Amino acid sequence: MTERPRELHLEARGLNKRFGGLQAAADLSMRARHGEVHAVIGPNGAGKTTLVHMLSGFLRPDSGSIVFGGDDITSLPAPGRVQRGLARSFQITSVFRDFTVLENVVLPVQARQGHSFRFWRSAMRDPSLTGPARVLLEEVGLGDRAATLAGHLAHGEQRQLEIAVALATNPSFLLLDEPMAGMGPEENRALIDFLGGLKETHGMLLIEHDLDAVFALADRITVLVYGRAIASGRPDEIRQNSQVRTAYLGEALV
C-alpha cells in the first residue's frame, strides 16, 4: 500500500452557503492540520453539518474555496476527495444493514485495492481483503462481531463500524460527524482512546456535541454560531473566551 504524504492540511477559505433565508455558512474560514484533532462545536443550527458536507464534497459552497494538501478541491466531487485521502462518517449511520459487519468493511478495502465487484463472492474468501478488514474491526472494538448483520448491531456499534468503513479507504484525513452519538460511557471512552491514537497518522475534523469528548480529544476548537466562526484556538483558550461562553458554552465549562 502506498503511504500518503503526511502533511495534508484541510482549509476552508471564506465559505458561504445560503438555503433560502438561512445563512448556513458566512465567510467561514478555518484550517485543520494533519496530525491534530480539530473540533467544530456550536449550538444546533450553527452550520456544523453544512460545513462537513461542503468539505466532503456532498454540497457545493455558494462562494469561497476548499484546499486540501495545497490543492483547490472546491469543484472536486465526493468520490474524488476520497481518492485524495478524505473520508467521512455521517451524523446518521450509513452502513449496509443487510450485510455482515465484515462485508461492510471488505467493500471499501476491495474498492481501494481496485478489485472488481463482479467477484464479490470470491472477495469474501480472499485473505488479502478480509485480513485488513478484520484488523480494522479489531481496532474499533468489533472484532467479535464480524459475522453479525450490521442491522443487528446496537446504535453505538454501528457508529464504530462506520469509522472502520471510513478507515478502510486508507484516508489521511477523517471528517467525523458526531461519531459518539448514541454510545454509552464505556463505548465513548474506548472510542476517545482509539481516535486519540490515530492522530500520529491522520488529521481529523470532529463535529461532536459531547463536550467532554471534545475537550479530551481536540488540539484546536472552532466555535460556530449562525454559520460564523466566532472563535478558534486551543481548548484552554476556548474555555476562557467570554464571547464563546455568552454565545454557546454558558457556565458549563467553569
Layout of strands and helices, then pairs:
Layout: E1 10-19, E2 22-32, E3 37-41, H1 48-56, E4 63-68, E5 71-72, H2 78-84, E6 86-88, H3 101-112, H4 120-123, H5 127-139, H6 155-167, E7 173-177, H7 185-197, E8 203-207, H8 211-217, E9 220-225, E10 228-233, H9 235-240, H10 242-249
Summarize this structure briefly:
The chain is an alpha/beta fold and 254 residues long. It is built from ten helices and ten strands. The protein folds into two domains: 8-85 and 171-254, P-loop containing nucleotide triphosphate hydrolases (Rossmann fold, 3-Layer(aba) Sandwich), CATH 3.40.50; 94-170, no CATH class.
Describe the structure.
This protein is an alpha/beta fold and 254 residues long. The chain folds into two domains: 8-85 and 171-254, Rossmann fold, CATH 3.40.50.300; 94-170, no CATH class. It contains ten helices and ten strands. The protein has helices at residues 48-56, 78-84, 101-112, 120-123, 127-139, 155-167, 185-197, 211-217, 235-240, 242-249; strands at 10-19, 22-32, 37-41, 63-68, 71-72, 86-88, 173-177, 203-207, 220-225, 228-233. It has a six-stranded mixed beta sheet, with helices on both faces. A four-stranded antiparallel beta sheet has the order 2-1-4-5, with helices on one face. Helix 5 crosses helix 6 (155-167). The longest helix is centred in the middle third of the chain and has 13 residues, at 127-139. It is globular and about 55 Å long.
